[in-house]
Design goal:
Length: 283
């Protein structure tokens, strides 16, 4: 081609094209550290109240923008359509970034030492389980479905929601046992010595024991019993029963005919950091 027929080179035109391509590329790149679409922006108390009102379970995802496995889990696990569809029907989720004051407080409250961590709660604020490490979507879906039982999402009437709700979730034993709801009012004073035992010659139809937890499987109850034996001064027993037709296994410690004796033992356990309550049983 003759030189006179060639178009002149215009560098600014080429730079403009390059800038346009770069802008399109930036627009198509997902925003870094964006919150997964499923999670709600609220406090733990607000999430608990909403879960109770909607009869849903909820979980806390402990994460950090500076941990690679956390970024992977949020980008891969919590974008899975099957998982998100199930969560939308059955769970509420709260993202707790430990680099923020609220997330750091929750991390200390629940003694979270590994990221990412997922803590699962019933609709009434019972801590059901904790799962650590980066979990693929299929595995997390199976775990969450395993916790989704009718007993953990029993509906609460709107007018009685405040009365029925447990206090703000608190970390309990490392066993991840459900928080206990006492059926006997807690004692207001602590006696220095236990009351005298009733005469052994008399017979009683009922007795008192201290309940440490309730489990849905015998295997979990046995595992908890093995751990609690080292912490309890009284024998730890497993008592099988049913709740709404579903088998349950209660973990009980102590055998008393005097309620105040049982309460004294309960206070000893509470002083050792063991959540429990006194329960009346039949012989």
């Amino acid at each position: 081609m003759p030189l006179e027929d060639q178009k002149p080179y215009r560098p600014m035109k080429h730079l403009a094209h390059l800038a346009a391509l770069l802008l399109l590329t930036i627009l198509w790149v997902p925003a870094a550290n964006s919150q997964p679409p499923f999670f709600v922006k609220a406090s733990v108390q607000e999430v608990q109240q909403q879960a109770a009102a909607e009869s849903k379970l909820y979980f806390l995802l402990f994460t950090s923008d500076y941990v690679m496995t956390c970024d992977w889990m949020e980008a891969e696990t919590f974008t899975n359509p099957e998982l998100l569809s199930y969560l939308d029907q059955s769970y509420l989720g709260l993202r707790a970034d430990i680099n923020e004051p609220a997330g750091k407080a929750l991390q200390q409250q629940y003694e979270v030492t590994q990221l990412p961590s997922v803590l699962v709660f019933s609709c009434r604020g019972q801590l059901l389980a904790r799962h650590t490490g980066a979990i693929p979507a299929e595995e997390l879906l199976a775990k969450l479905k395993g916790h989704d039982r009718p007993a953990f999402r029993q509906p609460i009437k709107a007018e009685a929601a405040k009365a029925d709700l447990l206090p703000s979730p608190q970390p309990i034993l490392s066993l991840s046992m459900p928080r206990l709801v006492p059926d006997v009012p807690p004692a207001t004073t602590v006696s220095s010595t236990p009351p005298k035992a009733r005469p052994a010659s008399r017979s009683y139809a009922n007795y008192y024991s201290v309940q440490l937890g309730v489990f849905g499987s015998r295997a979990n109850a046995e595992q908890a019993r093995a751990l609690m034996r080292a912490k309890c001064s009284e024998n730890v027993n497993i008592v099988a029963g049913q709740s709404s037709g579903t088998p349950i296994y209660r973990l009980l410690s102590g055998h008393y005919y005097d309620k105040e004796q049982a309460r004294h033992y309960q206070r000893q356990l509470q002083a050792a950091g063991i959540d429990s309550f006194v329960k009346q049983l039949q012989q």
